[in-house]
Amino acid sequence: MRREVSRALVVAGLVWGAHADAGSAGPRVAVSFPASLAADSADGRLLLLLSTDDSSEPRFQVSDTSLHSQQVFGIDVDGWKPGAEAMFDAAVLGYPLDSLAQVPKGTYNVQALLHRYETFRRSDGHVVKLPMDRGEGQQWSRAPGNLYSTPRKVLIDPAKPETLRIALDQVIPVIEPPADTKWIKHVRIRSELLSKFWGRDMYLGAHVLLPAGFDEHPGARYPLVINHGHFSHDLEGFREQPPDPDLKPDYSARFKLAGYNRIEQEAAHQFYKDWTGPGFPRFLLIEIQHANPYYDDSYAVNSQNLGPYGDAIVRELIPHIEKTYRGLGQGWARFMYGGSTGGWEALAAQVLYPDEFNGCYAACPDPIDFRHYVTTDIYADENAFFARGPWKTVARPAHRNWLGHVSATMEQMNRMELVLGPNSRSGGQFDIWQAVYSPVGPDGYPKPIFDKRTGVIDREVAHHWRENFDLVHIMKRDWEKGLGAKLAGKVHLYVGDMDNYYLNNAVYTAEEFLVSTKNPPYGGEVAYGDRAEHCWNGDPARPNALSRLRYHQMFAPKIVERILKSAPAGADLTSWRY
Asked: Fewer Cβ atoms within 10 A, N terminus or C terminus of the chain?
């Protein structure tokens, strides 16, 4: 029996050594790649994945919030050469289990993947190795050029100090860019600002949805609306065709809805009919493409670690789009909305570029007050992972459902990111916050806000965060210095009071400040969804599963109302209103 198993594993490229390894505790895994896949040496993060779930490949089954996450271990490789073995042993950190030695005896789907790094020589003098986005939106499991192995069934016994050998045998292929259509155009420009910072060519892009009648009204000039959010391969939520009659219904565990994929197609087709039908406001709608070496978007602000993305978007990309597609090109005619990351971006761009935009509609924004950094106060708490008393220690939660049932803690989510890539290179949520908000550390990587193993908070870094990116603090600090006059009537916040990531807590303190402002009054709106999870957008008439598919219809009328109320004398209020 043992001979037959060994023969099968040899064929699969997975081989348990026939001898015990002296001095090792438990199993080890040695990974290599052939020169036929990559002739040169490689830098990157090498991941080892184990799964008990046959529904898909292990590389698609790691989650920071799901109780059903499968297992991953990670090590850095630097100048890794074809044929050389990189070793995983019991000392390598993993998630959810810490160590290979803790893996129960059993048969697992085993896979390895190399997330490749590129060397950047930045203008600040630092040389760093990071995974540049390659058209997939910073998803290590799907990034073109990454090497991986075909998954195979393997018996693992932690009591036996044997070596499993894996050869990477696949390369993730290139992703083709989307094609233009009558309605959707794709813009990509080289950014001078970002290219200078990163020491190589860097690009910004956008999906541009043209208004109905664009060709028939050549004299019209249009307001610009940015739908901020995560990377998307093409413009999302817009479908010319009716729902696919042959679509196999799926099931949304999040919303407990059967056939949610059809619901999404129906909503996308309805938006197409609304957008092209009579009476819908005519404006340019864009989704920005700003994936970068740290994440699938930049958070649309200037950062010591990511570079001047805020300036590049406002000074380079937006003017280019407005010039190309007949935008009005003035701050009174620019608006933003979005949810989650997009909600934070909308509010941040409005606060940091108050003259360039005339309103933001921020749904379920990422923490806008770092006294509520999920469930941590980075200014008052000593530890981001645990609340401690003289005798008692409680893990800080990070993800819950609408009933308050917790599925992940602050420590667990950050340990997963540490396993996927140290130095903020995981592509995860806490890592991008750190990359955007932190100063550059001595090694050229973002200076940690807290230790990802212990949770101990760095007070100096927290001060930098507050003065530069704590949006509630900045509004408080500068409101009566002139910022308030520029933001009056422009700030609108929406969040469910049972947001999965506790994002409602920061909105509470934002509201406390905004409603107390008198010089001038803020003149906006703050609303909460009763028992609504992430990402409620202010629609009281529909459940979250449906309202999240109608951002455009929700906010378009509010934007027109704001324009008519606030446009300066002589502004063009007619050419685009047909």
From this structure: N
